[in-house]
Design goal:
Two copies of one chain form a homodimer.
Chain A: H1 20-39, E1 43-44, E2 50-52, H2 53-57, E3 68-72, E4 84-86, H3 91-100, E5 109-118, E6 130-139, H4 147-162, E7 168-174, H5 175-184, H6 190-197, H7 200-214, H8 219-229, E8 232-233, H9 238-243, H10 250-265, E9 274-277, E10 290-296, E11 312-317, E12 331-336, H11 338-347, E13 361-363, H12 371-383, E14 388-390, H13 397-407, E15 411-414, E16 424-427, E17 433-435
Parallel strand pairs in A: 1-5, 7-9, 13-14, 13-15
Antiparallel strand pairs in A: 2-4, 3-4, 5-6, 6-12, 7-10, 8-9, 10-11, 11-12, 15-16, 16-17
């Protein structure tokens, strides 16, 4: 035992890590998401965790103050000024990547990216400072067909489904409807009003009306705006409801037609999975058409209903990389907030623990003299694709079995204890034990 | 096109990223390494990129000055002092993890970890500031059987083999032999001498002898030390050579016996894969027994020989987490320098490009009116596990084929152009085209 001073470590707030049996589940989730993304032809890219600060600031916006900059612990003089920082999302790095490698990419460029991002937020429930996001984006030169606005939500939905989590709904709107409507109401500064309306879920209708009044919006206009963001339909019915509000503009008409197209083209998803929700506002400075937010579907019969927070989202942007390249690159992208989703379900005890080790078979070591034989068994089983541990010492069999039990290893293999004795395998789940040969044995199907 | 100012982005030195067709290979490598690690029962963990600076400094050492600390871009006053930093390897985070979750882990704890680390090094060829490492470690309480010192190199070797790279050799020594020998020579400060000897590969014998002389080592002793680090044998023959140098000590005898054990127990690896190399010194402040370095095997017939640099390594340590917990936790760990290895082979043009997209089949869109039918084909093929893109617009067939060609998509599917017409599939590699049904078609085996 060391006699040096001991600093008992504790978790750093906002930087999650999981025990092996839960990391196994997270890894399985990532494999499943990747499989769905690839099944639609998205290629993977990975960008460094680090970008030049200038590149990260090119888009501006709220996130700026949360950026973590890097400095070397013992920086030389003149080297003190941070030039590099951790990315806070995967969209800015992708924009920089597309601009930088423009000539080497094939368009429409369909990429997925599953990486961590970092934000120096004040820690609070459901917010992480380091978190995984799983992004898909399609980017094209000059124009991008609207069909992608309908394809990507289907991909996203399939990915959620693959995880075996409670039902998810995709709430979709189109910024053109909102902006057209607000302009039609004669509101001069749409930014303030939309930001206020965006708070509806959090603060409720009364507080929103009060804020709008303070912002100088007449009561009848405020009421109309509120009616607008309350429109939610499972089909294209939203269009009639919007039109019945008595405001119209070309932009609004275009937005309605785009949203109808998207909703209609998602008709193959299960009933209730897609909602046209004009209350979805999101990323004001960024999106220009389709906007989407994924949430757990409301289940009023649930004992402990899922919270109404976003577990994914995204939308359409007209010009991805204008700050990096003289090319108009419209795109549409969606993102799964993996850590947020996983952490939420962990907190609620809804992630069933996976295995503590990937080991399928523990090979017992009967005595040191039989190590070569035991190692041979292990190697034969591995060659068949099984995950195998050889117990490290010829301890009492009881102790070797206890190790398998504690690690949740489903099979224990007994090599010969005497020359010529047949091998046996014990199924740790049902206790059955039977003779077996390494070359031919197969575990029962899970 | 945007009229804002454009900052054409360029790569940040030391932070590599790859085009999709090479990232596909890197991802495939990571899958293969993971499969080998899991086949020996190692579980995966992932720790945050970020640790408290105090935790990173607990081990001390050379790396300290390369640590990147984090500061929020707009930190509040009093929040300026950096408390967090990026990890520079995966061993310190694992030590902290094991100490923190001690009660929840099963020992011997066998974990693998495949993550990026960061070091603010001066950029130079073969050195990266952000790089992947793939680590396996076994950690136990109080004692760890020597068998793991022989098992881990076998796992490492299998992982390299899985990558299909030029032959790798594992150079193995044991710090006890070196330290015992140096003590036996009567050298009082072994640290300086071993650090000098460690430079042999880089600066050559003459320069080493000169440095040793400057350090006050007598010429005959220096020559002996040099003879020692030049001992290299493919079997246990090293033992006799060491003993013939006429120095002995208990520590040395113990080290020889341990190294013999390890070399003998790796006898099943291909001839030449394992070298007892007493010139392997590594991580002076850290390792206490077995030390290992993986390099490409020398091939004197090669037109462009592989450089003699380390592409992996590790060893045995007596006390992993003494600065974090009052438990003696001996371990043995090895690491593949993935980015270093991948980057080296990239630079040499030895990474064959993978596919630009994972897409197996591009489904042609004959005309907009047939989109539902084409989408149905795509979904049927996906349900069979294929990766499928539906072309986004009913462009000329020639253009749709050109897209498949450019992305390297191996099959193009033609749905009916008229009602009742059979579907056809074109093999883009050999140009063959034949009628096919989505429900039953399978691609040719690769």
């Amino acid at each position: 035992m060391s006699d040096q001073k001991v600093h008992k470590p504790k978790a750093v707030s906002g930087f999650p890590e999981w025990l092996p049996e839960y990391r196994a589940v997270e890894l399985e989730w990532m494999d499943k998401i990747r499989k769905v993304f690839e099944s639609y032809g998205f290629c993977n890219i990975e960008t460094p965790a680090v970008e030049e600060i200038d590149a990260l600031l090119a888009k501006g916006g709220e996130t700026e103050k949360e950026i973590y900059t890097l400095t070397r612990l013992h920086a030389e003089e003149g080297d003190k000024e941070a030039r590099l920082a951790l990315h806070f999302d995967l969209t800015v790095p992708m924009a920089r990547y597309v601009a930088q490698h423009f000539g080497d990419l094939t368009f429409p460029f369909k990429r997925y990216q599953m990486q961590k991002s970092w934000r120096g937020e004040r820690p609070q429930k459901g917010r992480y400072r380091e978190f995984y996001q799983c992004d898909i984006d399609v980017v094209n030169i000059d124009e991008l067909p609207l069909h992608f606005d309908a394809e990507l939500p289907a991909v996203l939905f399939e990915a959620y489904q693959a995880l075996g989590i409670p039902p998810v709904e995709l709430r979709i709107s189109n910024r053109k409807i909102l902006m057209g409507y607000i302009a039609g109401l004669g509101i001069s500064d749409p930014g303030i009003v939309t930001r206020t309306l965006d708070k509806l879920d959090k603060i409720g209708a009364e507080a929103v009306l009060k804020m709008l009044a303070e912002q100088g919006i007449a009561a009848d206009i405020a009421q109309k705006a509120l009616s607008f963001v309350n429109i939610k339909t499972f089909d294209s019915g939203f269009a009639e409801q919007v039109q019945s509000l008595g405001v119209s503009s070309d932009l609004m008409t275009q937005g309605i037609s785009e949203l109808k197209f998207v909703i209609d083209n998602l008709g193959h998803l299960p009933k209730g999975a897609v909602v046209a929700d004009l209350g979805i506002i999101r990323g004001l400075d960024y999106y220009t058409g389709t906007v989407l937010e994924a949430r757990f579907a409301e289940d009023k019969t649930a004992a402990k209903p899922m919270p109404p927070m976003a577990i994914g989202g995204g939308g359409r942007y007209d010009d991805l990389a204008g700050s990096f390249i003289h090319q108009k690159l419209p795109g549409v992208g969606l993102s799964i907030g993996l850590t947020r989703l996983f952490g939420l379900l962990m907190d609620r005890g809804q992630i069933p623990a996976g295995r503590k080790a990937p080991t399928d078979v523990l090979v017992v070591l009967p005595e040191e003299a039989r190590r070569a034989e035991a190692a041979q068994v292990a190697q034969t089983l591995r060659a068949k694709g099984l995950n195998v541990e050889l117990f490290h010492s010829d301890s009492k069999i009881k102790r070797q079995l206890a190790y398998a039990e504690k690690k949740g290893i489903p099979y224990v293999w007994f090599p010969s204890f005497k020359d010529g004795q047949p091998h046996e395998v014990k199924n740790m789940l049902n206790g059955e034990q039977a003779a077996a040969e390494a070359a031919t044995w197969q575990p029962a199907k899970a």
